[in-house]
Design goal:
By secondary structure, the protein is mainly α. The chain has helices at about 1-25, 35-75.
Length: about 80
């Protein structure tokens, strides 16, 4: 039967085309984009800003603790006459 052979042939071509379509990423993968340097630099800049902000806060805490310690030492010394 000619119709059955034709139908099998068409379905075979469709199946083969679908397989090629599904396998195309493995047969010819797209090249990786290496243009993410700007995003990486921006992220590193943000990290650097936050590290500097944390360092400033730590510096302020150290100053506050030094002042507190100095006041505590002055309060515990006997008054000189």
């Amino acid at each position: 039967m000619v119709v059955d052979r034709f139908t099998k042939f068409v379905l075979g071509v469709i199946a083969f085309s679908l397989c090629l379509n599904a396998l195309s990423p493995w047969l010819s993968p797209t090249s990786a984009n290496a243009n993410d340097d700007f995003a990486i630099e921006r992220a590193i800049g943000n990290i650097t800003k936050e590290i500097n902000r944390v360092a400033d806060n730590i510096g302020q805490l150290v100053e506050i603790e030094a002042e507190r310690l100095e006041l505590e030492i002055r309060a515990t010394r006997p008054a000189l006459k």
